[in-house]
Amino acid sequence: RIGQMLLDRGSWNGRRIVPSSWITTSMKPRADVEATLRYGYQWWLGQLASNGRPWYAAFGNGGQRLFAVPSLKMVVVIFAGNYNQPDQWKMPIKLMSKIVIPSVRQR
């Protein structure tokens, strides 16, 4: 529901939950983490490798992820249990870039 609310610019099922300006402000990059990864207000911000279009994500410990990809009108939630491992962030990114996004583009 949160991911869909992001795609709908702050609304859920036609009801305004947060101002669309809050969505815009929170998705604005505030810190560069890597060349292709930035951080807004509690949201990770990246770009699809295939076309450079943005994605937004919430990252949790163990590989828990919520991705919102506006250009594909898609929300992806990944549940994982790789807790407290230094490389726990890698697998959800691989799942998105190697499996989910290519599958969506093929359809």
Structure description:
This protein has 107 residues and is α+β, with helices and mostly antiparallel strands. The chain has a single domain, classed as DD-peptidase/beta-lactamase superfamily (Beta-lactamase, 3-Layer(aba) Sandwich). The protein has 3 helices and 8 strands, in the order H-E-E-H-E-E-E-E-E-E-H. A hairpin with a 6-residue loop joins strand 5 and strand 6.
List the helices and strands and how they pair.
Blueprint: H1 2-7, E1 11-12, E2 15-16, H2 20-26, E3 31-34, E4 37-39, E5 44-47, E6 54-59, E7 65-69, E8 74-78, H3 90-106
Antiparallel strand pairs: 1-2, 3-4, 4-5, 5-6, 6-7, 7-8
Rg measurement, Å? 14 Å
- Count of distinct strands: 8
Main beta sheet, described? Answer: 6 strands, antiparallel
Shape annotation: globular
Main features:
single chain, 107 residues, alpha+beta, Beta-lactamase, 6-stranded antiparallel beta sheet, two-stranded antiparallel ribbon, 29% strand
What can be said about this structure in brief?
This protein is α+β, with helices and mostly antiparallel strands.
